[in-house]
Amino acid sequence: MFEKRAVDLGGLRLAPYSPCITVGNHIWVAGQIGTDGGDSLKEQTSTALQKIDDLLSEAGSS
Fold first, then answer.
1. pLDDT tens digits, one per residue of 21-48
2. Helix residue ranges, H only, 1-62
3. Average per-residue pLDDT for the chain
4. Phi, psi of 6 (to 5 degrees)
5. Number of neighbours of residue 56 by Cβ within 10 angstroms
6. 37/46 Cα distance (integer angstroms)
7. Confidence class for position 13, pLDDT limits 50, 70, 90
8. Residue 32 · residue 17 · CB < 8 Å
9. Residues 51, 26, 4: CA angle, nearest 5 degrees
């Protein structure tokens, strides 16, 4: 059986679920938004993508 692990980088939580879960060699990322990244769509998108990148790194993705 594979080990399930929640990955959380801390910070503000807007929903009651883990932002990232790993099971075996699978990684699921959920609900990353860029509301703290500025006012423009470009800034918010960049922030959301950076959060996803950080979570994947912390989860062990290469």
1. 999 999 999 988 888 878 999 999 999 9
2. 41-58
3. 90
4. -90, 135
5. 16
6. 8
7. confident
8. no
9. 90
